[in-house]
Specification:
By secondary structure, this protein is of the alpha+beta class. Helices cover 30% and strands 29% of the residues. It has five helices and twelve strands. The strands form four sheets. Strands 2-1-10-9 form a four-stranded mixed β-sheet. A hairpin with a 2-residue loop joins strand 1 and strand 2. The longest helix is centred in the first third of the chain and has 21 residues. The chain is globular. About 5% of the residues have low confidence.
Length: 165
């Protein structure tokens, strides 16, 4: 079910991204929010974004103790710092893809349309397993009416999922 939601977001973001490719930007989808970010002039298979775009798209900031968001902080390995942070002139670039690998966060990329989707970290995903409560999502039914899982809280719901692989 979660993968189906990821794909739905990818389709939505592809529409937004088609415009972004023309403008030489990329679209980052983080916590379900699409944000256009500047493109690193150096070609790379990783997503390097400016530190201001990092904060705008993910709410993470680089601090001396590591990459932090609210109370959550991930220290960067000192011997690998160049894999995460690069300074070119007055601009500091951050490798969001390498950071996602480090914190075990799934990433899906559509290079053609310039869309990068960052899923829930492993710790967040496992939280749903321990509570046995499905995460909320919103999808249209066959008639186009939009429904959220929270609309059915307190009622019995059968979730049927399917994948093509």
């Amino acid at each position: 079910m979660i993968r189906c939601l990821f794909m739905l977001w990818i389709v939505f973001a592809s529409f937004v991204a088609a415009r972004a490719v023309d403008q030489n930007t990329r679209v980052v989808i983080y916590d379900g929010i699409a944000t256009e970010v500047a493109v690193d002039p150096n070609p790379s298979t990783d997503l390097w974004i400016t530190t201001s775009d990092l904060t705008r798209a993910t709410r993470f900031v680089i601090k001396p103790q590591g990459v932090c968001r609210d109370e959550l902080c991930f220290p960067l390995p000192k011997n690998r710092k160049s894999e995460f942070v690069s300074k070119e002139g007055a601009t500091t670039w951050f490798n969001l893809t390498e950071f996602a690998k480090m914190i075990k966060q799934p990433v899906v990329v559509d290079q053609k349309h310039g869309v990068w989707y960052f899923g829930a970290r492993e710790a967040e995903q496992n939280g749903y397993l321990t509570s046995l409560e499905a995460p909320n999502f919103t999808l249209p039914d066959l008639s186009g009416r939009v429904h959220s899982l929270t609309d059915f809280r307190g009622k019995k719901v059968l979730l049927v999922t399917w994948a093509s692989w």
